[in-house]
Amino acid sequence: MKILVLNCGSSSIKYKLFEMESKEVIAQGGIEKIGMKGSFLKLTLPDGQKVMLEGEILEHRAGIEYILGVLLSEKYGCIKTIDEIKAVGHRVVHGGERFNSSVLITDEVIDMLNECIELAPLHNPPNLKGIYAIQELLPGTPQVGVFDTAFHQTMPVYAYMYGLPYSLYEKYGIRRYGFHGTSHRYVSRRACEFLGVPYEDQRIITAHIGNGGSVTAIKNGKSIDTSMGMTPVEGLIMGTRSGDIDPGVISYIMEKENMGTKGISTLLNKFSGMLGISGVSSDMREIEEAIEGGNKRAIMALKTYCYRIKKYVGSYAAALGGVDILVFTGGVGENQASARKAVCENMEYMGIELDEELNDSVRAKEVVISKPTSKVKVLIIPTDEELTIAKDTVEILNQVN
């Protein structure tokens, strides 16, 4: 069975086509700069070679039509007819309180997704564009929505409520929702499979850290707290997002800089975080280069970044009543030894003993990087959100057929 997974952003579409019997990725790539000059589709061939196909791609429907054409093409394709695609799984960022698991997409579900747009105005509209495009281009093909927020719907009320008038929660749904749920679900379960321990009997902290980042506390297979909030701005310091900030600072900046709501949102989302602190880049590789050159602001930025992660790990150990497994994933978590070391440093009191030599020598592979004597198992688990979406899609299909 072949399942197409789509992740539609505001100006991009990422895709993977899976052969589910073998869990093999038989095609993958992405479109960038939709609606802009210089739009292109970049695909990865089975031998790892990258191919870039330029073209004018004005909107998401045209982009998905382009992807389907490439999948069918004689030169780069891997299917003979479009009917080989049995279903399409979509990453949907925000499901609000309505969705606590993946669902078959129906007209009723689409209506509910439209109601969630105000909670994720930047993310849900392009997600819906992908769904509408498949309805037009592959009529009758089942579609499944897999939500970033769903895994965190098990959080207890005291973990997701803000210290605001309760009426604002009732009127507008203002509360912590959390994101990266598909990744946190995958890596926490995979870590337990890798270690050969029961998932439903572990206290796990997962650190998905990259350009965006979040930490989640998982107890007995359920998320009990997570660092992102109503939006993906709360929590860790990220590539361009501020993370946790005194709300009073926001009104102060708005007043001093004569800034409106749109301006302050852009500042917190696009020009803060590692970019804002370092003045160098939002890309950790470029920041590390600057650190090697002695750039003091880059050094400060990395220390601040890692300190925030360490604080969340410590607080979630308290919330869990101890921790059995700590998992690093995401672009930074999987590849940057210095960040993992900084987070785990001086955490022996908590049972974390990092094998520094092993930590320095590995990247982007499933591996235990703690010492054999460490009470807490520390792992790198590369995330695979697309495979999780594909698996959920097959599971939903099996339920309805």
Overall description:
ATP binds at residues 14, 208-212, 283-285, 331-335. The record marks 180, 241 as: Transition state stabilizer. It comes from Fermentimonas caenicola. Pfam families: Acetate_kinase. It catalyses: acetate + ATP = acetyl phosphate + ADP. By secondary structure, the protein is α/β, with parallel strands linked by helices. It has 2 domains: 2-147, ATPase, nucleotide binding domain (Nucleotidyltransferase, domain 5, 2-Layer Sandwich), CATH 3.30.420; 196-385, ATPase, nucleotide binding domain (Nucleotidyltransferase, domain 5), CATH 3.30.420.40. The protein is 39% helix and 19% strand. It has 15 helices and 14 strands. An 8-stranded mixed sheet has the order 5-4-3-2-1-6-8-7, with helices on both faces. Strands 11-10-9-12-14-13 form a 6-stranded mixed sheet, with helices on both faces. A hairpin with a 4-residue loop joins strand 1 and strand 2. Helix 1 crosses helix 3 (124-137), helix 10 crosses helix 11 (296-320) and helix 11 (296-320) crosses helix 13 (337-344). It is globular, with a radius of gyration of 21 Å.
